[in-house]
Design brief:
- The complex is a heterodimer of chains A (97) and B (476).
- Chain A has 97 residues and is an all-alpha fold.
- Chain A has helices at 15-32, 38-58, 78-81.
- In chain A, α1 crosses α2.
- Chain A is extended.
- By secondary structure, chain B is α/β, with parallel strands linked by helices.
- Chain B has an 11-stranded mixed beta sheet, sandwiched between helices.
- In chain B, α11 packs across α14.
- Chain B starts with a helix and ends in a 12-residue tail after the last helix.
- Classes of the chains: A mainly alpha (97), B alpha/beta (476).
- At the A-B interface, α1 and α2 of A face α11, α12, α13 and α14 of B.
Chain lengths: 97, 476
């Protein structure tokens, strides 16, 4: 295994998890590869591996159909909600000058 | 200019001097400003010193108090706000180059509340870029450079509320506001030897505050004592309909009363399975602190944090929510302008998380909440070291200075802040010793959600019987 993939003392990823890492990397590099240097690609491999490793700790935990997520829909009348002012950059970051 | 004997006073004492007009808010503000301008740059503590605003607010406070209109204990007290809080008329940089010129035309709710209480904003405190929202590996990850620890400027303050920690420790302002998604108040408060509090989730409004993870972000005080934290929290807490996650008034408002003695002995659980790799001095400092509390009448017994992927869940929630919060920055490619190597690329990786994975984490989160909540049937507060280290050198090689390594060794990483942050629990850290190299060590208390008064009571009881909180570094 690529030494970059594994942090010292951590168990190896399962084959399935490793395949997931490769698939995610392929997708990232296809989309954003032109923005990344070789060193950044190495760091990306380490980062994605870490992400998948954390997911592997969560996915096996059994949840039943009725176990709802810790997300809440706040039932507030729309006129009141629309007063919320979200911090915004003056110029959208995606916009060109 | 007023001396350190005044500038390091806790709010209650300083407020009494201001109320009785023994200390002038203008002179006090000028003294903190002078110190901020002289020492702030040496520590990289500020992004902006708001001198004009501070003097204007100080003159107003002086006038009002002279006219007999005293607003309360924060009236005339200078403070600093982490630079992710919107303040009209000044830049709000989020500590990051892509936002260096950002301005908002309104004040964050907490700033408004402190304005109403008559507090004086002296500056915008330096911070880790985006409060670490896209990850970071070293102390340089900030628009203003590495924030230096006033106890030893070769060392870091910790982050992400770095400037807030340095400012309070160095006596550049009386208190500061920080934000804590996962440890960003607790860590710098501990390493800077001050008292810092992360309130229960939803208690303090985040309107006008940069978001990292909407379901985990909290705003809280960093100050001299736990009592100061209680006084500040009582001002900044309370429902705000402009914050989606703000709790109803019945739960969010915080009426702080300095109750003594407690109606029954405080029940403290000493966490025995946290920070297993930490230096023994950190654990022995907590043991000594708990002996003090036992002598003061508390009941202390050992307890372990429950097993569970708290660490992973906390980290994943932050990564996924931050990828959304900063999606524009990431998709536009402007994340390349960040300082930190990890921050430049982490967003791309986080955009790969799936919705089913996110919902699985959020469903597991409910189980984890119940697990930790059950512990509080036996204990009022849980106690642990404030951090797993006493000092982080500024020049630590990349990948080692990150306070929260992404690749932490699995199964050996029980961290109280991951658990309490994930579950929205209140926590307070206060100084409880110094190590052999004269770095402050801290003890943290956490409690059941909304029992903010319990963590303050525990820390206050400790500070009543000790004087660690009166120590400060020689920075002048």
């Amino acid at each position: 295994m690529d030494s970059v993939l594994q942090t010292q003392g951590e168990p190896e990823l399962s084959g399935q998890a490793q395949a997931e890492v490769e698939a995610k990397l392929q997708h990232i590099f296809a989309k954003y590869g032109d923005r990344l240097s070789d060193d950044q690609k190495k760091l990306m491999r380490r980062t994605v591996t870490s992400h998948v490793r954390m997911l592997e700790a969560i996915r096996p935990i059994p949840v039943a159909n009725g176990d709802a997520p810790a997300t809440v829909l706040e039932l507030v009348p729309l006129p009141r909600r629309s007063q919320k002012k979200t911090p915004r950059v003056k110029k959208s970051l995606g916009e060109k000058e | 200019m007023l001396g350190e004997n005044v500038l390091y006073l806790p709010i209650r004492e300083l407020g009494a001097h201001i109320r009785t007009r023994k200390i002038s808010p203008v002179e006090l503000t000028e003294s903190y400003l002078d110190r901020s301008k002289r020492l702030g740059p040496k520590l990289n503590a500020y992004v902006t010193v708001t001198e004009d605003l501070a003097l204007q607010q100080a003159r107003m406070a002086e006038k009002e108090i002279a006219a007999g209109h005293y607003r309360g204990p924060l009236h005339g007290i200078p403070y600093a706000a982490k630079d992710l809080l919107a303040v009209k008329g000044y830049p709000t940089t989020w500590g990051a180059r892509p936002y260096a010129e950002q301005h908002f035309d309104y004040d964050a709710t907490v700033i408004e509340r402190l304005n109403d209480a008559g507090a004086i904003l002296i500056g915008k405190a330096a911070m880790i870029e985006l409060a670490g929202g896209l990850g970071y590996e070293n102390a340089n990850a900030s628009l203003t450079g590495p924030c230096k620890n006033p106890w030893n400027t070769d060392y870091w303050t910790c982050g992400s509320s770095s400037g807030s920690g340095a400012i309070v420790a160095a006596g550049l302002a009386n208190f500061a506001l920080g934000s804590d998604t996962r440890g960003s108040i607790i860590c710098p408060s501990t390493l800077c030897g001050i008292s810092g509090m992360r309130p229960s989730f939803g208690r303090v409004s985040r309107y006008g505050v940069m978001a990292i993870a909407w379901s985990m972000d909290k705003i809280g005080p960093m100050a001299r004592t736990a009592d100061c934290c209680g006084l500040i929290l009582s001002v900044i807490a309370g429902h705000d309909r402009k914050d989606h996650d703000s709790l109803p008034a019945a739960f969010s408002s915080f009426r702080y009363r300095k109750k003594e003695p407690p109606s029954r002995p405080l029940r403290i659980g000493r966490l025995t399975n946290v920070f297993p790799n930490a230096d023994a001095s950190l654990h022995s400092a907590v043991d000594d602190a708990l002996k003090v509390l036992e002598k003061a009448g508390a009941k202390v017994s050992d307890v372990q944090l429950p097993e569970g992927p708290f660490e992973e869940a906390a980290e994943l929630v932050i990564l996924i929510e931050a990828a959304s919060a900063f999606s524009e920055l990431v998709r536009s490619g402007r994340c390349a302008e960040l300082e930190d190597p990890l921050g430049k690329i982490n967003g791309y990786a986080s955009l790969e998380f799936s919705a089913p994975d996110f919902l699985q984490i959020e469903r597991v989160r409910v189980f984890l909440q119940k697990k930790i909540d059950a512990l509080f049937d036996q204990f009022d507060v849980l106690a642990a070291p404030g951090e797993d280290t006493a000092a982080i050198p500024l020049k630590t090689p990349p990948g080692h200075a990150e306070r929260r390594p992404r690749n932490r060794q699995k199964g050996n990483s029980m961290q109280p802040d991951a658990i309490s942050s994930l579950c929205g629990l209140p926590a307070v850290t206060v100084p409880c010793a110094f190590n052999k190299d004269n770095f402050p060590l801290g003890i943290q208390f956490m409690a059941r959600a909304l029992n903010d008064d319990q963590v303050i009571a525990a820390a206050r009881l400790f500070q009543k019987h000790t004087d660690w909180h009166t120590k400060h570094p020689s920075v002048a």
